[in-house]
Structures
1.
Amino acid sequence: MSINYIEIMITKELRLDIRNEVSWPKYFYKYKVTVDFLISSVNSNKMELTLVVFPLLNLLRHSIELGLKMNIFYFEKINGVNRKYEKLSSEKRHNLDSLFEIFSSQLNQIVSFDFVSPHIKKEVEKYLKSTNNLKHKLMDLDSKAQAFRYPENNDGVPSFNDIDTIDLDGIFNSYNIICQFLMFTEDVLAEAGLDTRQRYI
């Protein structure tokens, strides 16, 4: 494989005051914007998929992790419970199975409240199913949040040792649905009396 080095010319001063940029919602949204940009660039043939596939999948997976954690912390405020997330081991804090279990449990508890409309209850059920499907796909590919980042594990076993192809179309389409869901939960939070509007700005 030959590598073409690209000389990057910086034509303006790149400095950013990040003091107001550090929050769970803003981190989630910034990662989502980056993933969307890369998918769009690949889809429009402005970027070669083989050059960005693993960084893209790593960013995609991490954005879902951020979105799940963001919602877990908001849900627990509504439900008035201690953070189950904090009780997880260091490894499981990056495990989509563990995070999705807490996320769905907290959300279902909120949805069971009388003030949540039947429409939202129906939408939540639909989105949970879609989210669970993509979670399984990503866990099958990268259960320990390592395979998208490194070509082999700590024992020297190659990443994707038993996988020939990846259904990127299915992953990207499911990702769009899940991100809608992770932001759609604002409607549930609003009905619960917690104002979270404009939290991505």
2.
Amino acid sequence: MHNNIFEITWLPLWDCNFRCPYCLGWYNTNALKFQPLNTIIKMWDIFLGKIMTSETGVNLTISGGEPTIYPNIFQFLQHLINKHPNMHVSLCTNLSFNAAEFLNFNFPNDRISLNATFHPSCMSTESFAGNLILLKKYIPDHTVNFVADETNLKKQQHFIKSINDCGIKLNPLFFKSFRHDQETEYGNLEVLNSEDEINLVKKIKSEQNLASSDYESTKQSSFGKKCMAGYRYIHIFPNGNIRKCSMDSTYLGNIFDEDLNLYEKPQRCKQKICPHQYHNIIED
């Protein structure tokens, strides 16, 4: 097993309490909405029992949509870390939830982290910074993200300074468009930023000493390289379908059916662009 770690990204829902102009994910209705807490606990305990051993760790990333609007999500997190000691959970969130409610659970920050993204069109800088200060110890590397579309880049100087003043770095994410190819079952992703915007993103990263990858900017391709996706990494969608990654719709099972058909070894990537899970690529 690759470093004895199995990585999972789970989208429990598409729903979101924000309506960001650059995101249409919340339009998607292909989901089984809001499973009762006892149902998802049972489902995940059975599923994790298939892939975890005393020597195996699991890194679970819960995304969406906005996962914190899922009923009883914090109680679910509490169950996971109590039941499965070799597990770390990262919650991808817009940080709009009640920070006091989260803090009442007293989660250990080496077991639970918050992968936060700031959306200026839907949340004020002041509100975001207020929650950020309260939740700072749960923010990995004291870094949060924002989508580097044209509008956000025009306003970036003001809100980057406000976030930096909280002792937090603000990492720009390249603005991308996704199209799914029904014939090949593979996704096509295109960076929409202009050359000037790409250079500005790189400048923002450099000024804050943030690492940058050529996979993110599409300067480097994942095509043909071996990858852990489908072998030691999977992506689970709201309807329970298990895929090797967000870009490849090859069916590997369904978590509700307790079905799992993993690859027996790393496979070669068939995507031109790998924007998110490029750390799973095995460089030759």
3.
Amino acid sequence: MSTPLPSSEPLPEPFLPPPFANTPDPLPSASLTQGPSTIARALSVALNRGCSAEELIATLKMHPRLAFLYETPPRLPGQYRLDDHSHAVIRQFDKYFAPHPLPGGVRPELLRLTLALHDIGKYIPETTRDQHRATVAVISSVREHLPITDQEFAVMMALIDGDPIGEASIHLTDLTRHTRCSIPVTIEDLRDYCRTTAPPIPPPPTVEHEARRAIAQIGAMARRTHLSVSDFTNLLIRYY
């Protein structure tokens, strides 16, 4: 049921801190064909009735591994605890996007669950370079406790495993100011941006390279799912 990590490069050792690695699963290992776990059933009930952000995170904390990571103290001053950050992110989604249909018919419950888990590996790696890989590994390890289909799990992994918008944003912050783009921004807008750059935006090849790299990465992420590139792009923007 697990998803391979996106790189063959070995993760830093020890990849999981001892309290995480030594925490036993709260339930016997079981595949989805044997029926949903207690945690999966509790999550399904909570999500289907539109639970609060706090209740969603509290339900995920039924798994001791997730509870440990949500409550891990930040490493640096000014950083947030993951449960506090996750509450805020889910509330923002609920405020601006939950009332509206999502691209590709994606259930809002899936995106709420994805947002609840999107940073779960943040404080595991020694460098932020491994943050997405660590998060993918943690979520894969608790896959059987998530009340989503394999198709939905693929969408969750694709959204979490990368940050093409953030990585390109240093060169694309003036996108909406200098182009007649739609809201939300689409792949077509990014292509137009490559063709219509003008001062004070940094000249090609910097902008063009960053935009094309983002386009290629988003396309690769979309192909891991059942969604079209357009639908995945608009879903990624809402997730971002």
